[in-house]
Amino acid sequence: MDRTLLERYDRRVPRYTSYPTAPHFHAGVNAEVYERWLGEMAPDAPLSLYFHVPFCHEMCWYCGCYTKIVRRYEPIGDYAATMTAEVSLIGGLMGARPPITHIHWGGGTPTILSAEDIERLIGEVRESFNVAPDAEIAVEMDPRTMTEDRVKALARAGVNRASLGVQDFNEHVQKAINRVQPFEVSAQVVRWLRESGITAINFDLMYGLPYQTVDDVHRSVELAASLRPDRLAAFGYAHVPWMKTHQKLIPDEALPDAWERFEQAEAIAQGLVDRGYRRIGLDHFALESDDMTEALDQGRLHRNFQGYTTDEASSLIGFGASSIGALPQGYIQNAQPLRGWGDAIRAGRPPIVKGITLSDEDRLRRGVIEKLMCDLKVDLAEETARYGKTAEHFHGEIAMMEPMVADGIAVVDGSVVGITELGRPLMRTVCALFDTYLDSGVGRHSQAV
Ligand SMILES: C[S@@+](CC[C@H](N)C(=O)[O-])C[C@H]1O[C@@H](n2cnc3c(N)ncnc32)[C@H](O)[C@@H]1O
Q1: Dist. CA 63 → ligand 1 center (Å)
Q2: pLDDT digits (tens, 9 = 90+) for 325-375
Q3: Across the strands, what pairs with 285?
Q4: If you measure from the C-alpha of residue 183 to the centroid of ligand 1, how many angstroms do you get, rounded to a whole number?
Q5: Pocket of ligand 1, beta carbon within 6 A
Q6: According to the model, what pLDDT value does residue 440 have?
Q7: At 218, is the secondary structure helix, strand, or coil?
């Protein structure tokens, strides 16, 4: 990669955790539509659940997620009670009880919930849904707020995967993002998790952070890998201060430029590959022994709102304010201000405010984009055949790929189009060729690298 190539393709494009992407959701898909879709649920197609807990004790200045800073437990306890009611409400609207294979708790900081609230909520989930005995139950956690007791409570509730926010191990970077987290804090939580039987461990790292250098990321990778998590994600800091005003606390001039971001991302990737991790998709890494590596090798890797996943369920139900669900008919998103979300549930109505119904054309393009993001290649003949079309359907996109092929970031071989290793960091730009919504000017995204 050279600077010219990076400048040519490092565009502001979506991360494609869904297609169509969230800025295209609209109010036409409402509670009534969602109730109908839930009623049509197939009895045997596996289902996943996502729980959003939008609270943290302190604001990390880079944070791009929907969360609120709270000191008292009262609003958090109220939220847990409302979410318990939401679980029972949605469970009652389902036309069938398909097996639940994956449950993900995200945030904010889900581990801010008390042990009792977590156990009560998971109890209600088991009551209202048919949780498979071997379901994966994953929880995002902030190591700074974990205690041994909390870890044990999670293990008792059946949690079997933990995702730890690490970001960077260098104090000067940690200070600049308002997240001081000494190495020993993360190391201690990893020990507690393993001792409690939660042995599947992910770390989140970030690059492109204020004052962060390539040397800093080398050190972070070395320390992170020394704890041997099974998986790591390395996210490029998405600086969107026009949407997240607290990000204005990070001075623009402290941020690495596009080329430095690229060098940092590559340093993380090389450092992890050198230490036995496989590179997966845009930003994930896993040990050879991890089932994500196996899913990649077998063409079963998927992409959802949490990033890359081994989850093969065709439906996802989201609980909590702002959470997004995906059903075969389309996407749905819950209300975001806490009040609106809670009022709907108390009125006995699904708290949906927007969504999008998928057309076959959307499904086809979603499949193509997902394959490119996961496998770095897709056979357009195979994908189009599912919808009674031929690869010719994409002749315009293939023509637009020509400069990318000439630049060595993409390849076209008959009906198979792919992204090269050189093009991997720019895969979002290649996928954007297949996105028919992009030119509508809705939404403003972060840089590709
Ligand atoms: C929703 S956070 C939850 C983690 C948990 N609250 C914690 O403190 O560790 C999940 C991950 O999203 C990533 N993230 C958050 N804001 C981001 C941003 N603006 N750009 C890129 N990644 C971001 C971070 O790596 C973070 O660990």
Answers
A1: 6
A2: 999 999 999 999 888 999 999 999 999 999 999 999 999 999 999 999 999
A3: 232, 279
A4: 18
A5: 56, 62-65, 106-109, 140, 142, 165, 167, 204, 206, 235, 237-238
A6: 64
A7: helix
